[in-house]
Amino acid sequence: MSSLPLVVMGASAGGIPALRALLGQLPADFPAAVLIVQHIAPDVPSLLPEILDRSGPLSVRQAVDGDPLRPGQVSVAPPNQHLLVDENRIVVTHGPRENRMRPSIDALFRSAAYLHRERVIGVVLSGLLDDGTSGLYTIKRRGGVAIVQSPEEAQFDSMPLSALREVEVDHCVPVTRMGALLDELVRALPQAEGNTMSEAEDRRLEVEVGISRGENAMALGVTELGEPSLLTCPECQGALVQFEEAGRLRFRCHTGHGYSGSSLLSEVTKGVEDKAYQMMRVLEESVMLMRRLGAQCEGQGDLLGAENYYNKAQEAEARASVVRALAQSTERLGYGADPALRTSADD
Questions:
Q1: Which domain of life is it from (predicted)?
Q2: What is the pTM of this model?
Q3: Active site includes 254?
Q4: Is 171 among the catalytic positions?
């Protein structure tokens, strides 16, 4: 195990201003490697490393698979790739998405905690939903330090609030105080191991890190991590197993996709919404067609046929209104799309 301290940071919506402010506070001789997952659109080239590189004295670059971990080097996850760590190097993979995300904050945090244990400091910043909570819990259980941005100053407080609810956080501070705190903590990290995980938790961590690295989930034993849930994966329709972590439900399918309870609800709700809009489209198209057929009958003098088509069009229009209300209410049940993914996070 490397003795180099690691600071792993996770952010989503509203995270870029927080990252810029935080990196601007770190000194040029910062003695830890820094790795960042910021949720960004998967199909847009990222300018995030260049933006963050102008924030302070530390060098910031997009993570490259196989690069060594170096003190004072900041590495940012590439679009649509997981950023992980090995003992002494960076690992970039195209493993299954987790909580609908690739890169995943949880995947980075778990991989850091798996090998580097008490040498890891995890930081959760502004964002929606709960990516980062499970990974921060793992860092804490493996003897590392857990830090969360103060929810009241975060642009989006869902991720900080989720972490605070589920993890025994060591520090909850505004970004303006994080730089000095990190510098102090990094220079005083303990040398002794502080792992408090059970054997079963260690085994699950090993499997989940392997999945994020792109290894075969079935061969790793993903189906042995929990009980069958009777639910299916929204991405691949594979069977999901469910298990508890710190009293909260999590899910994995046999191909490797992972979900917290909140992210799974969001995906299931989105599926219902999509189907409702498809049904609404079919009904509205039938209304347009029946009106045209009615008009044709009317033009040919077939008033009875025209009335029949017009009546059916009214019935279909009423049904479409019901389905439209269903689609809109279902949309409100979900957590909505992450603003960080609607456009390039480099804006």
A1: Bacteria
A2: 0.85
A3: no
A4: no
